[in-house]
Every structure is written in structure tokens, then in C-alpha cells.
Structure prediction request, 606 residues.
Amino acid sequence: MAAPINQRFPPPQFTETGHQMPHLTAPPPRAGALDYLDIAVLFACLALATWIVLRRRERREVVLLGLFSLVYFGFWRNGCICAIGSIQNITQALFDPAYAIPLTALVFGVLPLFFALFFGRVFCAAVCPHGAFQDVMLLRPVRLPVWLEHGLRLLAYLYLGLAVVFAATGGSYIICRYDPFVQIFRLTGSLTMILTGVIFLLMSTFIGRPYCRFLCPYGVLLGLAGSVSRWRARITPDKCTLCRRCQDACPFNAINRATPRNVPAEATPQEKHTLLLRSALLPLVVGAGVWFGGLAGTSLARDHRTVALAERVQLEASGAVTDTTDASAAFHAEGTPPEKLFAEAQALIARYVFAGRLCGAWIGLVVALKLITLAWRPRRPEFETDAVRCVACARCFDYCPQEQKRRQALKAKNGVMGQNGVLE
Amino acid sequence: MKRRAFFSGLARVAAVLGLGGLAGRLARRAQAGHTVWQIDPWKCTACGKCATECVLELSAAKCVQFYDICGYCDFCTGYFEPQPNKLNTGAENQLCPTGAIDRKFIEDPYYEYSINEPLCVGCGKCVKGCTLFGNGSFHLQIRHDRCLNCNECSIARACPVEAIHRVPASKPYLFKTLEGKK
Prediction:
């Protein structure tokens, strides 16, 4: 379609008036230096969140920092690039050598994970705008039944698997496309996604952080990192009195209760039996995942434009449809032989099937391990935050009687200090 | 419990090393400056998707006029309907649905056409008319005072000819040039 320049109508000389042609304007994009500011703010917020959760132990300060993150990373930066979406940038960078990953995407993807490896999910607590948005909406938490909680949480693993498949094979970013909050941060977008965001926010008023718990693919990674964290939010500053108030306070089912006294310290034969049975089930479940993932891969491939175009061209060639789409018309105009397109599409479908199988294996593994971990609960002497699920929101601290004691002692000490100006 | 702490420490060290290695490897390839989305005018077919697919209510893609290429025609095929009643600025004669093109008489027989950017919705109707029958001086570009630089550009995804891709932010526009297609 592109015609060579200056062919049809030679540009005029303006001999009579000497008219000067205007110039094209080119408004510059957002300054690159602001990217470094974003990275600095991210680091500062993570450090601050760590300090508040682990040292200050103040819920109020967590909320304040969360509100700041919501305004800065959410509404001010329009929610892009965020840590959740950066999974896809990193995946694409790993699989597509031609893709140069933006520095912000790399840092936003990696830095919170480093923090989680040492301090737990402090990113979720007060730095992630998505998390903070849902957290401040929570008014009257409803406790979900355990089976539903565990079941729904598996969705996030599936979502992560699919996001990696799409980013690795076609460079297509489903996390961004179906993000419920980013369109609210931008204050513009498609009606469907804005409505989805509103529904999520309404749900957040009684189900604590529904996106974080049941969908967020980055939360899965943070949970895995958090499971080996060195220091993380600890409910009681002293010895647990087993009052179970903290468990009632947690809206996210993220506190594991202490093992009741009547439960024997060692695993019972019954438990051992279930454990063995479910472990034997592992290869079966993974195998089923691989099989199902391979089947799904073929349909997932349709998301890729080349595969979709090949299908369309094939339909047109077979005479099933008579009109053309924009894409197929452009393809015909280009004059590439359809065989080349079909071969490309075939190769892509094979890639999707392979990726689908891997994703299926991942889901199978997650489900099987879930079954195994549910069969045997580790014995716990006291109530503690779950390393994977706890988002370090700091709610439980306020409810712990030992924490109240600590605060009173601290207040007394500070009070004396305030009156006399010296310690003690 | 001690054994558990030991293994968890081991896993943590492994994760830190792995994550660090990954970040280091990717950082070497990471873009020094950032990148922005732009339309390649030589690939663009002016299909009109830019106007509707952008996440912004008023698309970030707009028509630009590269005056150096423009023929300053009286009967501009980017400005007028295919068979206009008269060659004047009457709304019924114009191709642009929002009247975003200004037509100004310069000297006989030349007229200058400029884009009134706040009105332009990026539908590309004028681009199509100008490219098919004229010199092709009208072309669509993503305007960076409007573009949010989304991680996945929705018009890039919808573009039937893959004309939209990331370009270095230091050279954020792909204007047509007098030399023609590179």
C-alpha cells in the first residue's frame, strides 16, 4: 500500500508568497529519569514496609504506607509497570532473545522477591497498589470454609502457569489484559474490565483481598519465596498464650493454629497411610496434568495472531467464508505464500502444546503437593503466620494479648522518658 | 525443627543465587533507556482499529501531517469525500468525521492541510485517502503526550499487520521521511 514518496503530486515551491511549511510537532514521552525515581521509591517503600511490619508492628502505619503506594504506584503511575505484570516481561526476555526487557520491569519483578526471601510478603502488605486497594476496602470479613479457601487458592497457580505460557510462546500479556484494577487506576478503559474491577472491590468489602488470594500470580511467587524467609511477621512478641484471638483477627485464613494437646506428637498410622497413598498419587496427577495441558495447548495457540490468521486464510481458501478480515486482506496484499504461513502456524501450535504440557505438569504437581500437605499437618507449639499465605497486613498484632503487654510496657517506659526527659 | 531451618536456609541461599543470576543475565540485555510504542507508517493500513482499541477514551494514536511530502492539492483525497459536491470546507464534503483537518488557502492552486490534534480520534480515514490517491503525507503516529506506555499495548495487539512495536524513547516517532521507505 505504501507508495514511494514524491511521485503523484510534487510538493509546491510557493514562488508567489514564499510560504514556509510548518514543522511536525513531536511531544516527548515521559522522561526516562522518572523510571529511576520509580525504582528508588519501590526500594524505599519495601524497606519501610519491612521496618514497619517487623520492628514497629503498627497496623496503622501499614495502612498509611499502603495508601501512599496506592496513590503513587496506582493512580499516579497509572499502575504500569507493576510487579505482577513484570512476570511476563521476564518470561518473554528469557524465551525471546530479541526482546530487550525494560529496566523497571526487571527491577519491579525481582526486588520484591528478594525482600520476600528474607522478610516474607512485605510487598503485599503495603507496597502493591492492588493489595492496598483491596485491603482498605475490607469492612466486614467473612471466613471462607477451609476446603473453599484451599481450592480457590489453586486458581492463582493456574493463572501463573497460563501467563507464563502466553508470554513465553507469543509475547502476549494476559495478566495485563485481564487486570481488574489497572483500568480504575487509569480512570479509563473498557466497560467490562472496569465493571470487573468494581465487582472485585465490592467483593473485597467482605472477602479479604480476593485477587491477592485467589488469582494473583505474583503472590504465588512471593508465597514460595516467603516459605523460606529468614525473618517474617511473627504474631506474638513473647510466648504464645494459645488464646486464638489472632486466628479470629486474620481475614485471609493465613494463621495456622497451634496443635491441640490431645493430638499425639508423632504422625498416627492413619495419617502415615493417607500420606503414603497421596504420595503414590503424585505421578498420576502430574501425568493427568500433562495430558490435559497438551489438549489445552491447541486451543491456547489460537490466541497467537499468526495461528489465528492461518486459520482464517485456510477458511477463506476452503470457501467456507467469502469475505476477508483486515488481517487476512493485508496478508493477501503482501503476497506471502500461504504454505509459509501454515508452516509457521504449525510450528507455533507445537510450541503451545509443549508449553501447555509443562503448564499441566506444574498444575498437577501443585495439586498433588496440596493433597499431600493437607494429609499431614506439622505439629506447632503456638499460633503462627503461614509462611506462604501471610501478607503481613499486621492486623493480628493488635489482637495478641502479649503484644498489648509489650505496648503498655513500651508506653510506660516512653511516658517516663517524656516526663523527665531522660531514660528511666 | 533445626533440620527444617537448615533446609529452609539452604533453599533461601539457592533462591537468592538463582534470582540474582537471572537478574544479572537479563540486566545485561536490559534496555539502557526505556522504550515506547510507535506505529510504523510504512506498514500501517489505516484500518481504523487505533481509534477504538486504545485503552484511553480518546486514542493516543492520532494523524500527523508531514508537510514536506504534502502536494498541497486543491482536491485533497485525505480531506474530501471521494465525490465531493464542492471543493470547500462544507462539512458534507469532508472525509474526517470530527472535522479535525484545517484547510487553508496559501496561493493558487495550493492549500495547506493541518491536523487540529485535540479533535483527531485517530480513525485513519484521511490517512487511507491520502495514501491511496495522494502522496501519503498524512500518517498515524502514537502521540507521547497522551500514550500511557502500557506494558501490553492494546492497539498493538489488535493491529492486523503488526505495525506497532516498541522503539527507543530517545527516538520516539517513526515519521515518514523524504527518502521514502527505509
Summary: The longest strand of chain A covers residues 255-256. Residues 418-424 of chain A have pLDDT under 50 and may be disordered. Chain A touches chain B through 69 residues (CB under 8 Å). Residues 269-375 of chain A form one domain.
